[in-house]
Amino acid sequence: MRRGAAYNPYRPTNYRKRDPTTVTALTLSTSSAAALRADAVVVGVAKGAKGPVVAAGAEAVDKAFGGKLAAVLETLGATGAEGEVTKLPAASGLKAPVVLAVGLGDVPAKDDGYDAETLRRAAGTASRALSGSKKGAFALPIEDVASAAAVAEGALLGAYTYDKSNGNGGNAKDGKSAKTVKNVKDADKKNNGPLAEVALVGGKPRDKAYKAAAERATALVEEINRARDLINTPSNLLNPADFAAEAVAAAKEHGLKTEVLDEKALKKGGYGGILGVGQGSEAPPRLVRIAYAHPKAEKTLALVGKGITYDSGGISLKPAGHNETMKCDMSGAAAVFATVVAAARLGLRVNLTGWLALAENMPSGSATRPGDVLSMYGGKTVEVLNTDAEGRLVLADAITRAGEEKPDAIVDVATLTGAMVLALGNRTFGIMTNDEAFRTSLHEIAEEAGEQSWPMPLPTHLRKGIDSPVADLANMGERMGGGLVAGIFLKEFVADGITWGHLDIAGPAFNEAGPFGYTPKGGTGAAVRTLVRLAERAADGDLG
Questions:
Q1: Catalytic residue among 392, 529, 533, 537, which?
Q2: Number of domains the chain contains
Q3: Looking at residue 105, which CATH number applies to its domain?
Q4: Active site residue 392
Q5: Is residue 2 part of a domain?
Q6: InterPro entries given for it (predicted)?
Q7: For the whole model, what pTM was predicted?
Q8: How far is it, in rounded angstroms, from Cα 490 to Cα 483?
């Protein structure tokens, strides 16, 4: 069998792709929360000084309870704490049989209202609680377009589920066996499936701004779910060639341009970093360029994603307990891919090019060894001191290649270092740049999008640690501050005069704990919202 052939003995023969953009339906409703037919009506409850307080949007529901909904909820133990869920039978006069009260946290200061992220998380919590339902009427506080968009995003994000029946989304296709169809149905019953429809009470279906917000939320979440699906897909079902094929298929659907460099093209082009990482695997590496262009664009962005479809650590093998979730090491590439497609669907006035640096890092007789020297794309040489510091190697090749097109800015995204998780925890990604204003801008954009991030430095004294006696630089430096060392390494491959940012999403990319808010267990789609918001700003001529 030739190396890299399509046959994979470990791939289930009944594996079928799911539709990566299947998402819960979203409707805007002018109906009263009391009059809307649904499986449940969702209301907000806040934590007041003297007990729970029913939030705005639930007036009609409170009226059906004779103005005593807060008292009933308190009797049931509700406090209004953020993330708290209380279900109760609906009062007469409500079309929905169930009221679901979701905690919003402390009552906001007078006239401040609830911030967007609070609304997102509450809506996501409610969607998860309504898993398996056909329709939920969301009567959360909606004061304007921004709050409507936040509720819509949170509700749709929270409704996500990854189908475990071979990734087929629970939708039987023609030509499949009765046994397979039965398995799909059984899986649907077991998993309950996501909430099928979100009705946004207080939405204005005839208002252009509200309609645009709903359309943006749908497109954005569909693409985040695309990223989540890719991240959750087992590595034996998603190697570099598989990932590249997904990108090509999406590009055809959305009118994007793609270029795929296989192992022969990578060798001819001198992409020593990508080839060096991938040479130990039977599944050869790929570099994918996927591009969206707008005829009236004034700014050009290049996004580079780390796409290690499985990371064993290579010869520097990871210890037991650190391998099981390494299918998620392509989360950066998934985020970049999803962002480019989202930009195309939203018609943003920006030129956006995504670079997916795809490889599988495996130990074998052909694998790169610690101490080997790789000749990178562009000519620099790197001494590989640790083969588990492989992400920076594939990114370096792609960053150099992206720089040749002279974009206004390059942003790379990667599950790059455990050191960043130690520094910032599991829910916050680090931001490093070669421009302080851009670092500040990226931090502001992430907060605006609802993603937790923190600006990190690139101390000049750490640069000396990656000097090498046998190459231009080494892929490892000082152990302390390892996440910053990785950023300093990548900076070496950024062309002069190009603004660059690095997002280390190692913490928030994959949630190994239980779901919370709108965040599921498993792949999260981290950084997509930040990158889409960055593209939107670039479309407005603002890159910080």
A1: 392
A2: 2
A3: 3.40.220.10
A4: yes
A5: no
A6: Leucine_aapep/pepB (IPR011356), Macro_dom-like (IPR043472), Peptidase_M17_C (IPR000819), Peptidase_M17_leu_NH2_pept (IPR023042), Peptidase_M17_N (IPR008283)
A7: 0.92
A8: 11
